[in-house]
Design brief:
The complex is a heterodimer of chains A (614) and B (254). Chain A is mainly alpha-helical. In chain A, the strands form two sheets. A two-stranded antiparallel ribbon of chain A has the order 1-2. In chain A, strands 3-4 form a two-stranded antiparallel ribbon. In chain A, a hairpin with a 2-residue loop joins strand 1 and strand 2. Chain A is 72% helix and 2% strand. In chain A, helix 22 crosses helix 23. Chain A has two domains: 292 residues, ABC transporter involved in vitamin B12 uptake, BtuC; 206 residues, no CATH class. By secondary structure, chain B is of the alpha/beta class. In chain B, helix 3 crosses helix 4. Chain B is 35% helix and 24% strand. The relative contact order of chain B is 0.19. The chains are: A mainly alpha (614), B alpha/beta (254). Chains A and B meet through helix 18, helix 19 and helix 20 of A and helix 2, helix 3 and helix 5 of B.
Chain lengths: 614, 254
């Protein structure tokens, strides 16, 4: 019993730092509608900055002053980021800010390594709180007690601030209806900058307060960002008390999960999130998102099937690619094979997002299921990898049928988060179920039969399948089915009142997208000859998003171009330099700022006049 | 007496403590054009959404040609022959004007799930004739996202008529249009109604449109039906005059 109390208290102490992080994320989303992927980076910067300041200054004043000063410094950095980058893209499609903040997160990671070095840093302990107090006969860190009090204290302060101060009232009003607040003549620029600063301050404070408990390292941003997303979604987007409740829930889950269900400790978090979302689609204390006002001014070119010229171009490109083995060496072929695979992956994600209107933060789940569907067949039945071309996509289809059924019941950011939760569940299962999947060691020897072992042959196989699949996706988009799905995306209410079964159509679209991603994953497994849990990871899902958005969401060619550019860039840059994340991040941010319509969108606008080629 | 196309019996809907619609009943005859008027917040849109299946009533029934359709989802209501247009127009932005209409036709002909052939090759002529009916033939190839407001409303009407509905629900069909356009759209609606025997229920704020085009008028205030009858009777009704001339209620829409 005593032990449980201690464990619960430890959980509460962690909850405080999580709450600071998540409440900031929630407030920022509530007002600006930005899903701030860089939020974990600000948390990390807070920790590093506090490390520097608290080792420089001494005494209690030095420590606490250092912590608060660190958060303040990072908040100023946040304000600069908001003014220089985010302010320019509030009116861009909703995912662009996400992409930009992802670019910022990449940049920060390398920047931190350059400034503070790659090693773990151990900060000072809080003066006077180094020791432990005895609770129920067990020693308990004194600093943790302070943290336990701090969480509710910050919640109280925030609550007072949001209820009582004029600025807080404005923040709440904007959370409920930002169009109305703008119409009332509020200076939106200043409000957004202020809100972003507040959110970043809270995140950085959360990071700074962590230094006496654990070492500071340059991967903590990605560690915490996913947890923060989960908390915000469980609590309800935009709700500060919800964020607090969810922080406690998540922290206690972490504290007890490892003891009670060690086998599924990593899945637990995401299982809880999935259950909450299924039962309460807007989180524990969240409210339904205000229906987006119909934006009459939004111009979108109607999607048109390729004309004769377009088809000729497509066929010519495939023919050109088919001729590549005549001139290229094995390395080039392998790289091109990989690019083709990711072009299919991006096209499948685009089918889900661009056509179906369902944003996925977890598309790697289906890619990875395809890869493991193949690898497990090889491992347990000794079949050559080609048979995996059936089992891989089949496993991905099964996954998409199950997960999709839940996902199409939600919409917007909540849907995206549920896809993320499912992807993480699959990842955790693969990672922890060592007996079957090999866990972190992966599955090796997933090679195709001898006939396809030559890089040129495997390249041709990949080209054939990818070209056929991309062609099929293209065809589907303009089929009656595709048009019905697009109708559901464009106007859900209208679609239902012309008799369309929105959920059913979106479900099928989800399943098909999953199947195509599974095919890509299968081909990837055969190319690499091995499968590791990375193929299910968040970074791969995000890569997919970057490819699609880079190419342009509003076009069908976009994801293919985006995949080609992104993959070529990643392969080239990462082999040439140590700071490829910094470079990639910068490229992403610059591209988002310069071309919010994506590469193909810009091509359409500037190079090719409207309506041509249709 | 004409056949009853749509009947509402004792419909109620409350949001929290607010009785948005409180014991409302009426009937709409086949081929009749019925206007629903009332100040903002009277419950018009809520009543509409209960008829179209977007909101499930707390109590009461909705009958379509004698068949109970209460609480059916919008797509079932649509299949049974109810078309609907929206106050804030809802069209499909990623499509051309003609494809918008074709989408409704695909659904009507049971081809919404087909993988084959290309969608814009199906029911082209039918779509063209619907567009001709609302006077939009020359705009068939334009992007729906760039239409002027009045044209969007006409497209909305063409979509709603695609499955040959027997009842048409129009929520503020002329809101935001210029006066000339309003008359034009409602003349068109009345013509379609007569030619095809479609029963029309519409909400409207413009009294010229109401008294010029409705066969009968229902007046809603505070969620209750306060008057109904021929336009002339309603216009003479003391309570209605108080509502519209006294202008006591002007609270915003919920």
């Amino acid at each position: 019993m005593d032990f449980f109390v201690i464990q619960a208290l430890t959980g509460l102490a962690s909850a405080s730092s999580l709450f600071l992080l998540a409440s900031g994320l929630s407030i920022i989303f509530g007002v600006t509608r930005i899903v701030n992927f860089a939020h974990g980076s600000f948390f990390m910067l807070g920790a590093y900055m506090a490390y520097t300041l608290t080792t420089m200054w001494s005494g209690p004043l030095g420590f606490w002053g250092g912590v608060v000063a660190a958060a303040a410094v990072v908040a100023v950095i946040g304000a600069v980021v908001e003014i220089v980058v985010l302010r320019r893209i509030y009116d861009a499609p909703e995912l662009f800010p996400l992409l930009a903040t992802f670019g910022l997160a990449l940049m920060t990671e390398d920047a931190v390594k350059m400034i503070w070095g790659p090693q773990d840093l151990l900060g000072p302990r809080a003066p006077g709180l180094e020791g432990a107090v005895t609770i129920l006969g067990h020693p308990f860190p004194a600093y943790d007690l302070v943290l336990i009090v701090l969480g509710p204290a910050v919640l109280g302060l925030l609550w007072l601030f949001l209820r009582r101060s004029p600025w807080g009232v404005l923040v709440r009003a904007a959370t409920e209806d930002r169009t109305m607040v703008a119409a009332l003549g509020v200076n939106q620029k200043r409000l957004f900058t202020g809100v972003f600063m507040l959110g970043v301050f809270l995140a950085a404070l959360g990071g700074a307060l962590r230094i006496p408990r654990e070492a500071v390292h340059h991967a903590m941003d990605m560690e915490v960002i996913v947890e923060a997303f989960v908390i915000v979604v469980i609590g309800g987007l935009g709700s500060v008390p919800g964020a607090f409740l969810a922080s406690v829930l998540v922290a206690e889950l972490n504290a007890f999960g490892i003891l009670l269900f060690p086998k599924i400790s990593m899945v637990l978090l995401f299982l809880v999130m999935a259950v909450v979302l299924v039962l309460r689609p807007h989180g524990l204390l969240g409210r339904p998102e205000a229906a987006a006002r119909a934006s009459l001014g939004v111009q979108e070119e109607p999607w048109r099937p390729m004309g004769r010229a377009g088809w000729a171009l497509g066929v010519a490109l495939v023919a050109l690619l088919a001729a590549l083995p005549l001139v290229a060496d094995a390395y080039t072929l392998t790289v091109t094979t990989e690019i083709l695979i990711f072009a299919l992956f991006a096209a499948s994600l685009h089918l889900m997002m661009g056509v179906g209107g369902m944003v996925s933060f977890g598309h790697a789940a289906y890619f990875g299921l395809g890869a493991y569907g193949t690898a497990l067949l090889v491992r347990f039945f000794g079949a050559p990898m080609e048979w995996g071309l059936l089992t891989g996509p089949a496993l991905a289809l099964v996954g998409a049928v199950v997960f999709g059924w839940f996902c199409v019941r939600l919409s917007g950011v909540y849907l995206a988060m549920l896809t993320l939760a499912f992807a993480q569940i699959v990842w955790s299962v693969v990672f922890q179920w060592t007996e079957v999947t090999g866990g972190d060691n992966g599955i090796l020897g997933v090679w195709p039969g001898r006939w396809a072992s030559d890089p040129a042959v495997y390249y041709m196989l990949t080209l054939t399948l990818c070209a056929a699949a991309v062609g099929a996706i293209r065809h589907l988009v303009f089929s009656p089915f595709g048009q019905s799905v697009r109708a559901c995306r464009d106007s859900p209410g209208r679609a239902e009142s012309i008799g369309l079964d929105r959920r059913g159509l979106q479900w099928l679209c989800f399943v098909l997208a999953g199947g195509f991603a599974g095919l890509a994953g299968t081909l990837y497994a055969g190319l690499k000859g091995s499968v590791f849990p990375d193929v299910l990871g968040i970074p791969l899902s995000v890569d997919g998003l970057v490819m699609v958005l880079l190419g342009g969401l509003g076009t069908l060619t976009g994801p293919l171009v985006g995949a080609g550019v992104f993959k070529a860039l990643a392969i080239e840059v990462s082999s040439a330099t140590d700071v490829w994340k910094l470079i990639l991040g910068t490229v992403i941010v610059v591209l988002v700022l310069a071309f919010p319509e994506g590469i193909v969108g810009v091509w359409r606008r500037w190079v090719r006049p409207r309506g041509a080629g249709s | 007496m004409t056949e009853r196309a749509l009947e509402a019996e004792h419909l109620r809907k409350a949001f929290g403590g607010v009785r948005a619609v409180d014991d409302v009943g009426f009937s709409l005859g086949a081929g009749e054009v019925l206007a629903l008027i009332g100040p903002n917040g009277a419950g018009k849109t809520t009543l509409f959404n209960m008829l179209g299946g977007q909101i499930r009533p707390d109590a009461g029934r909705v009958l379509l040609f004698g068949r109970d359709i209460t609480g059916l989802p919008p797509r079932r209501v649509w299949r049974l022959g109810v078309g609907r247009t929206y106050q804030v127009t809802a069209t499909f932005r990623s499509m051309t004007v003609r494809q918008n209409v074709q989408s409704a036709l695909l659904s009507h002909h049971g081809r919404a799930w087909s993988p084959w052939p290309r969608a814009d090759r199906l029911y082209r002529d039918e779509a063209e004739s619907l567009l001709a009916m609302v006077g939009m033939t020359d705009q068939a190839e334009r992007a729906a996202g760039v239409l002027a407001y009045g044209d969007l409303k006409r497209l909305d009407l063409a979509i709603a008529l695609a499955h040959g509905p027997r009842v048409l629900l129009m929520d503020e069909p002329t809101a935001g249009m210029a006066p000339g356009e309003r008359t034009h759209l409602m003349d068109l609606t009345a013509r379609v109604s007569r030619a095809r025997g479609v029963a029309v229920l519409f909400t409207e704020h413009d009294m010229d449109v109401v008294f010029g085009h409705a066969d009968r008028v229902l007046v809603l205030d505070g969620g209750r039906l306060v008057a109904s009858g021929a336009p002339a009777e309603v216009r003479a009704d003391a309570r209605v005059r108080a509502l519209y001339l006294g202008e006591s209620s002007g609270e915003p829409e919920p």
